[in-house]
Amino acid sequence: MLLISINSSLNELNHLLQQLSEKEYSNPCLELSNATIGEHIRHIIEMFQCLENQYEKGIVNYDSRERNILIQTNPAYALQVIQQIQKRVGRPNKKIELQQIINGEEIRIESNYFRELLYNLEHCIHHQALIKVAVLKHQGVDY
Hints:
Blueprint: H1 2-17, H2 22-26, E1 28-29, E2 35-36, H3 37-54, E3 59-60, H4 69-73, H5 75-88, E4 95-102, E5 105-112, H6 113-135
Parallel strand pairs: 3-4
Antiparallel strand pairs: 1-2, 4-5
């Protein structure tokens, strides 16, 4: 069920990306405190990438994201990256440690792959709700 929900949310983003022009995707939106739809999509993508790229190591630090500007400015490229994520997501569950640096001190918390997939799904849904507010002003966009 978790993987079905993740793919459903990512498919909604795929559907949106196919409808937006580069200008609509990368223009600042007042409704998003002058962030862009692309910035929110990039954030969603990079969180999933973090988990998938750091899976083998077993230590995930969501702050060590790439922050690829192309994802937030080019909807066609973002669509390709989401499709890559959909192919990779769903590995076997295993123990994972979350790593965070707070006030210069490293903190590690035990988790697991499925728990982090759930976190990424919840995070995705949260950002999709924000994106929807911005998309409402674009006539002809079905989201």
